[in-house]
Amino acid sequence: MKRLAVIIGLALVGLMLVSLARTWSVRPQQPSVIDGSGTRFDPAKVATHLAGTLRFATVSAKTAERLPFEELRQYLRQNYPQIHSHSSEYTVGQASILEWQGSTPTLNPVLFYFHSDVVPASDGDWSHPPFSGTIDKDYVWGRGALDDKGGLIAFLEAAERLAGEGYQPRRSIFLVVGEDEELGGRQGAARVAAQLRQRRVHLAALFDEGGFITEGLIDGVEKPVALVGIAEKGYLTLQLRVETAGGHSSLPPLETAPGILSAAILKVQNCQLAGGFHGPAESMLRTLAPHMSFPVRLGVANAWLTLPFLERGIRSVATTRALFFTTAAPTVLRAGERDNVLAANAEALVNLRLIPGDNPQGASRRIEECIADRRVKVSNHSGNTTIGPSPISPMDSLAYRTLAGTIAANYPDTLISPWVTVGATDSRHFADLTDAILRFLPLRLSKPDLARIHGHNERVAVTDLADAATFYYRLIQNLNL
Ligand SMILES: [Zn+2]
Prior knowledge:
Elements: H1 2-25, H2 43-54, H3 67-79, H4 81-86, E1 88-91, E2 95-100, E3 110-115, E4 134-136, E5 139-141, H5 145-164, E6 173-178, H6 189-198, E7 205-215, E8 225-232, E9 234-243, E10 247-248, H7 257-269, H8 279-288, H9 294-301, H10 303-315, H11 318-324, E11 327-335, E12 341-342, E13 345-354, H12 360-371, E14 376-380, H13 398-410, E15 415-421, E16 437-446, H14 447-450, E17 459-461, H15 462-478
Parallel strand pairs: 3-6, 3-7, 7-16, 8-15
Antiparallel strand pairs: 1-2, 2-6, 4-5, 5-17, 7-8, 9-13, 9-14, 10-12, 11-13
Helix pairs in contact: 1-9, 2-5, 2-15, 5-15, 9-10, 13-15
The protein binds zinc ion.
Zinc ion is lined by residues 115, 147-148, 181, 209.
């Protein structure tokens, strides 16, 4: 008996030592710097250029006024003459394209995607009117400053400078500017992708919006973190519907339509959906853990032992849960008209965001299993706006290493991490044209800035814009080394 206790004791001590050794042996891993020659841009000039674009109210709508888009294209032609004269310019549906011919036709081209359309904004809650393009106290203010005109202008500054210096890329570079991204990109990105498919173009990489250089957004990490979206969650809305006979509320049945539906919604909220400690979010946590607290480091370094606790911890926080798991959010509820009439029907909409590896059919089946009540009919409500999760772009690709290395060169002291984009971007239309889709804008984003995207007082710092132009100046060259 005593011997057994000693053996168990020794085994436990051994396990503890191994766990600690593993924890301490994990060294922070960051990409090596790729130092393409940088150059400085005049912040005031870049800011003025961006402010000019924000004055065109390029609001997307099914019947959008086309004039602001025409005027914006004209404005870009005037302000960036070099890159326009060195490229061929054309439009496909609601997208404009600059194709900058590379010197080596055997190399696959790269594509930079931005969108010039914005969501609506009304003057009321803004410090400066949203379409005034005001430059004030080190910021450029206006709808679209972060999403997505800021990135577009930074890229154009870099391309204009390079073209003016006589630089010619080895790979062809496509600059695609969509004009209906906020509506799903069917008339823009989707049509450009169809045309490239027809031309049998295979892209070495596609760069789109998605992640930012976040500051204070990731709990427990002090340094800024550049989040590079290597995958994107899918989108599905399900309708839950209960139909009963109805009747007078003075004689209610034992179970009512709203009651049956409510029970189902609670089960949906507690339903364990697809996901777990694997995929791109695992890569993210493994990248950032060495910079986090000891318990997190211990848990991640010894995931083989701590997995159940680790996953429970991830699930218990909304932000981490969204990165690792498919989520389901009840968003709309409908039942009943009058206070003294039983609601014959009750209906709810549940919006799901699918983790890479999951699929709409599987998620729908899982929800039905969790509800386990035949009286609740589950059907697809998002129809053709249903989107499966994206494939995962590999981190050992030349494209990822080049992007990460360029971030490291341009933003020293910034951690670089893979990430899962939780919202949808237009890059999904190009999924079959490349295996390297990287979603990242080189702009700094703090917690309050998050609410500015699609919210009030959207703005970007003047110095961030100039740094972003330098970043693209380096990236274009590094992609052509
Ligand atoms: Zn956007």
